[in-house]
TrEMBL record:
Record InterPro entries: Endo/exonu/phosph_ase_sf, ExeM-like
Superkingdom of origin: Bacteria
Single Gene Ontology MF annotation: endonuclease activity
Alphabetic keyword roster: Endonuclease, Hydrolase, Nuclease, Signal
Native source organism of the sequence: Brevibacterium epidermidis
Record protein name field: ExeM/NucH family extracellular endonuclease
């Protein structure tokens, strides 16, 4: 544990033991002559601290600073610290104490009322001085402290007060006036509260009248009025009553179109409102009242059941922003929450999460996204520059939902997938209808205007994809062709031959592939293995390369068989399908490492075109 490096008191003292403190009553009130409270919480990738504001000279020696997870318990011993002796509040009226914020929460990512943490301070008499929750809804229900090995007794059973604020990447949340805001960390220094953002209200808390969406968004990467209660109006451009988003986007009437100033504040915003989303329809003109916050880096307004009103007066239609989708956060920030019609095609760069979360990664500019270390040596400036460029070019085409299809909704057809329009890396995504630009889980996202599934794709899917699949690979010239092929855990030792295996199941509960619990990695049973073999055999025979390097094939020696048993089986299946002895495999060497894995690589070849020279060698020292 260290007192923040800019603090005046001694740093570098370590916490020797877990805290055992006496039980406390309900949240204790600060001393009458001193309003001691948490004034800043930092949880960035480079620094974590909790700051308290108090009268200069206040002695906080022996006090406890710490944080709890979303479940209300202290995660580990490192998440609480005892302040060293002779630590006092400096002339600034604030002192910051370094302490690890729990739950691996980092500013700009998972830092909200559901996934965030709560910071607490306990004085040397065992009284709970303050307990503040990152995110949540102001005046709503906060996290309740729960008992475990590391949670101090005064926290147990007490409820944190939601700040309603989360921090943008690299920033902290700070109490400015009567509201929490995101800003650059200022340890041991209180923010200037001369301007608390309430210029248009008499009571200093709730603005009078309607606040334009652009004023809520601001031109930075976080709202300038986080934690404030606002009333705003807009036209509903997208609504998600199902699928987990639990809200809708609204945009200022008449905004959008082609003539949009660079760097302007966004005119769209997400309204998080499970209570009212079912009562909204696209094109409704609505007025909402709720609390402003940042959720995973996206500005939103949290609206209760009473916070939605339909506006009777007609509204000018929202126009999609029609332009090439920009690269980089700065330009995209000015479009957050707005309706877009990208004017240029984007390239499919990744489809790994399509069957899990209904996501397709797209890339702006020319071509796909190269792995930086495929092009440059790891750690070099060139590799780092390409990594940054990839982040600037990337955007996720989403499905208007947060569903993990591997765990839920298995009866719903997956979005974006069909036999006629394959989503392949390198294909072009062409936008046929508008999308809304959102930000979530550290990614910019194109959201369809309502939840997309395979059932409603004809009406809802905003893109089409060019079919880049050819019947056979293009000719590459030369006398010998080389290829690589991932057989994706081709194991002839199926899960049902072993004990302890756990499985991925289909919708009817049938075991399909091994998930864990045993050494098998592939098919659960013979039926699944036959399906896998059919796909592999068809693809490799059509590939028709002279030599094919195989990845993720079973090392049969791990199951008491010849090391090449599974490899020989695959070659046999290839030849049966080819109708001749078209393929052979390179035998394993006589000497193999003693610590081999259950999975391996292998080589197969066409004897009519090439032949191995000498015995094979396993390169385990390269």
């Amino acid at each position: 544990m260290n007192v923040s490096k800019t603090a005046s008191s001694t740093a570098g003292l370590s916490l020797a033991a877990a805290l055992v403190l006496p039980a406390a009553p309900a949240i204790a009130a600060p001393a009458a002559d001193s309003d001691i409270h948490i004034s800043e919480i930092a949880y960035t990738f480079s620094t974590d601290f909790i700051e308290v504001a108090a009268d200069p000279g206040t002695d906080i020696s022996g006090w406890t600073f710490g944080s709890v997870t979303r479940g209300g318990s202290v995660q580990a011993q490192e998440n609480t610290v005892t302040v060293p002796e002779d630590t006092t509040v400096g002339d600034s009226g604030a002192v910051a104490i370094d302490v690890s914020i729990t739950n691996s929460v980092k500013a700009g990512s998972a830092a909200d009322g559901e996934y965030g943490s709560s910071a607490f301070v306990i004085d040397d008499d065992g009284e709970l001085v303050d307990f503040q929750q990152i995110g949540g809804v102001v005046d709503g229900k906060g996290v309740t402290g729960t008992k475990n090995t590391f949670t101090p007794a005064p926290v147990i059973g007490q409820e944190a007060e939601p700040t309603g604020a989360t921090a943008a990447s690299g920033q902290s949340i700070q109490l400015t006036g009567d509201a929490w805001k995101s800003a650059a960390p200022t340890p041991n220094a209180l923010p200037d509260s001369s301007d608390d953002g309430d210029d248009d209200g008499d009571d200093g808390e709730t603005p009078e009248g309607v606040t334009p969406i652009a004023d809520i968004q601001g031109t930075g990467d976080a709202s300038p009025i986080q934690g404030k209660t606002v009333t705003t109006r807009g036209v509903v451009t997208a609504a998600y009553p199902e699928g987990g988003l639990n809200g809708y986007y609204i945009q200022t009437p008449g905004t959008g179109g082609a003539d949009r100033a660079d760097g302007a504040a966004s005119d769209g915003i997400f309204v998080y409102s499970p209570d009212t989303v079912a009562d909204t329809n696209i094109d409704d003109h609505v007025e909402v009242t709720g609390t402003v916050s940042e959720h995973y880096g996206q500005t939103q307004i949290s609206v209760s059941a009473s916070g939605l009103k339909t506006v009777d007066e007609p509204a000018e239609a929202v126009k999609p922003v029609e332009d090439a989708f920009p690269a980089g956060d700065e330009k995209r920030e000015s479009l957050e929450g707005m309706l877009l019609q990208p004017s240029e095609s984007l390239t499919v760069a990744d489809n790994y999460n399509t069957n899990t979360y209904g996501e397709v990664v797209l890339a702006t500019g020319e071509g796909t996204l190269d792995q930086p270390t495929d092009v440059h040596r790891p750690g070099t400036p060139e590799a780092k520059a390409l990594e940054a460029e990839n982040l600037d070019r990337e955007v996720v085409l989403d499905d208007g939902a947060t569903v993990n299809f591997l765990k839920a909704d298995k009866d719903i057809p997956l979005p974006y997938l069909n036999k006629e329009d394959p989503v392949r890396v390198g294909a072009q995504a062409n936008f046929t209808s508008p999308v809304v630009l959102g930000f979530d889980h550290e990614k910019w996202r194109f959201q369809p205007t309502t939840r997309l599934t395979g059932d409603n794709a004809e009406a809802v899917q905003p893109t089409s994809f060019t079919d880049t699949r050819t019947e056979t690979p293009e000719a590459v010239g030369g006398q010998v062709s080389l290829a690589s092929f991932n057989v994706l855990n081709y194991f002839t030792t199926t899960g049902d031959q072993l004990s302890g295996c756990q499985y991925y199941d289909d919708r009817e509960g049938n075991h399909i592939t091994v998930r864990g619990g045993c050494d098998a990695r592939g098919a659960a049973n013979v039926e699944s293995l036959e399906r896998q073999e059919t796909k592999i055999v068809t693809a490799i025979n059509k590939l028709d390369a002279s030599v094919v390097s195989l990845m993720e094939i079973e090392n049969s020696a791990a199951f008491g068989k010849d090391r090449d048993d599974a490899l020989a089986t695959l070659v046999k299946r290839l030849n049966e399908a080819a109708g001749s002895e078209k393929w052979d495999f390179v035998d394993s060497p006589a000497a193999v490492p003693s610590d081999e894995d259950v999975i391996r690589t292998a080589l197969i070849y066409q004897p009519a075109e090439v032949a191995p020279q000498n015995e094979s060698t396993i390169l385990d020292d390269q």
